[in-house]
Design brief:
The protein is mainly alpha-helical. The chain has 7 helices and 2 strands. Helix 1 (24-34) packs antiparallel against helix 2, helix 2 crosses helix 3 (59-74) and helix 4 crosses helix 6 (149-158).
């Protein structure tokens, strides 16, 4: 995302221009489709495209076009941030081959996300349905201040016991982790 670029409302693929509706709620509907185990991959691609570009595209071309749309307009690729300690020294990083823990889920955390947008930005996400662009939503979500409920929940989920922490604190944090734990999704 660049601030001097317009938000994406259309794109050209294989010499054809497509209008695309990247309202955040529309993209969330697309995520619901991609997680539907009853659908085959080509069906998911066709349905996702019908939601986003409102055209009936079928077959192998639908899969190719869906992959292009997902990789270029929906997927969020953040840069690897190098964390530093108080002295400015780089902190040890997890190895790239280790599984990264995900501490949030757009569906399961919908209430926390809603409350956090209202608290931090005074934005009612229900009023923004059909209006707020996916890229705007992602930027605001990733920029939520640390005092919002969503960021506090993420902090609880990510907490790891440290030497020197009182046993009572550890017990309370473990209780909070159980309370705020994400449900396992097959």
């Amino acid at each position: 995302m660049r601030l001097n670029d317009a938000l994406v409302t259309s794109f050209i693929y294989m010499d054809k221009e497509y209008e695309i509706d990247l309202a955040f709620d529309n993209v969330l509907d697309v995520f619901d489709v991609t997680e539907d185990k009853a659908l085959r991959d080509y069906e998911k691609a066709e349905i996702c495209l019908s939601l986003l570009i409102n055209e009936d595209i079928k077959g192998l071309f639908a899969i190719e076009l869906w992959n292009y749309v997902y990789e270029n307009f929906i997927e969020f690729k953040g840069k690897q941030v190098i964390e530093v300690d108080l002295n400015g020294n780089p902190m040890p990083r997890q190895e790239d081959d280790e599984e990264q823990q995900n501490y949030s889920d757009l569906s399961q955390d919908a209430g926390y996300i809603y409350a956090s947008f209202k608290q931090a930005y005074n934005i009612d996400l229900f009023e923004e349905q059909g209006k707020m662009h996916w890229h705007t939503f992602k930027s605001l979500l990733h920029g939520l201040p640390s005092d919002t409920i969503m960021q506090r929940v993420i902090g609880i989920r990510a907490w790891k016991p440290q030497k020197g922490e009182p046993a009572e604190y550890k017990k309370e944090m473990e209780k909070l982790q159980r309370f705020y734990a994400l449900e396992e999704v097959e």
